[in-house]
Amino acid sequence: QVQLVESGGGLVQAGGSLRLSCAASGRTFSPYAMAWFRQAPEKEREFVAGFKNGGSAYYRDSVKIRFTISSDNAENTVYLQMNSLKPEDTAVYYCAVRTLPSYEYRLWGQGTQVTVSS
């Protein structure tokens, strides 16, 4: 059974930075790709950053340049470096995994809270 465990969330002032980590434990099904989503209070979950099937990273427009997704495949870990954080980035951040070539994310972590104060 694969489990995803996120860490690195917290409270930060606007303009600050945080780095989220998500480690996959257990047997993973290759090839796979991991991504980050977020959900703010009373809003739907939205895609933040992930990898296309060719391996290139892609982002929602509102976080481009400010956020960077990276992965350590040997450690089955994905990271999200978040810079120049804004109050509107406040949300619970989730990592998720999909088995290529499908873009359906079937496995989700428990989430980590990111709060950006103004």
In words, what does this structure look like?
With about 120 residues, this protein is mostly beta strands. Helix content is about 0%, strand content about 55%. It contains no helices and 11 strands. The chain has strands at about 5, 10-15, 20-25, 30-40, 45-50, 55-60, 65-70, 75-80, 90-100, 105-110, 110-115. The strands form 2 sheets. Strands 2, 4, 5, 6, 9, 10 and 11 form a 7-stranded mixed β-sheet that branches. Strands 1-3-8-7 form a 4-stranded antiparallel β-sheet, with no helix packed on it. β5 and β6 form a beta hairpin. The protein is globular, with a radius of gyration of 14 Å.
Task: List key phrases describing it.
single chain, 118 residues, mainly beta, 4-stranded antiparallel sheet, 11 strands, 0% helix
Q: What is the C-alpha radius of gyration, as a whole number of Å?
A: 14 Å
* Total count of helical runs of at least 4 residues: 0
Secondary-structure-derived class = mainly beta
Largest sheet: 7 strands, mixed
Q: What percentage of residues falls in helices of 4 or more residues? A: under 10%
